[in-house]
Amino acid sequence: MAIIWWILASLLAESAALVPPRGGVRYRATPPQRTAVEEAETSAPSAASISGLTSEVKTVFDVEAIQKILPHRYPFALVDKVIEYEAGKRAVGVKCVTFNEPQFTGHFPDRPIMPGVMQIEALAQLAGIVCLQMEGAEPGAVFFFAGVDGVKWKRPVVPGDTLVMEAEINTWKAKFGIAKASGRAYVDGQLAVEVKEMTFALAK
Question: What is the rounded radius of gyration, in angstroms, for the C-alpha atoms of the chain?
Fold first, then answer.
């Protein structure tokens, strides 16, 4: 008996899902189609979820702290914050590239690209944040480029990119104020530029 009732209930449910016959043919009712906006609202990641991807990245030196270490100022301050730091060894820093920067008015007017030499300068400033806090140096001191070797650019860096840089101090001769460092920088996890060796000299 229970089987009979189950069959009847199934038949009733099936008939309820059908619209009235038209021309002797029954059509199954279909749910309303979702709009593209509704699909996007449920499938696309939100601003909050995207912003949360960097929630575990902590700032070690913000821009105010960096200005107390480096002598560089606008428009040539090229490290926005430091997110990893090992005293006397290495640092990881961030440069947010924006279209408001003056170099993009001429490099290039119809295709703005961060000049490669400025990418190297940004890496040098990051290395300077480490060097100027080592024995024999003082925060705010001026240091000069003495050499750059083994530079390779892998992809353009354009406005809207976030350049994540890493600089390592390989040697530091406090007596002479000479440092050698290496560095690399990434955009969206892809290598953008690498430098095998940068040599710096503290101004006397």
Answer: 30
Maximal C-alpha separation, the chain:
103
- Which pTM was predicted? 0.79
State pLDDT tens for residues 114-138: 999 999 999 999 999 999 999 999 9
Q: How far is 107 from 156, CA to CA, in rounded Å?
A: 12
DSSP 8-state secondary structure symbol assigned to residue 105: G
The token duo for 165 is: 């840089």
Please state, in angstroms and rounded to a whole number, the distance separating the CA atoms of residues 102 and 111: 14
DSSP 3-state of 204: coil
Catalytic residues: 107
Nearest-angstrom CA–CA distance, 181 and 128: 10
Pick the closest to residue 130 from 78, 91, 94, 83 (CA basis): 91
CA distance 48 to 51: 5
Tokens of 64: 């105010």
Give the chain's length: 204
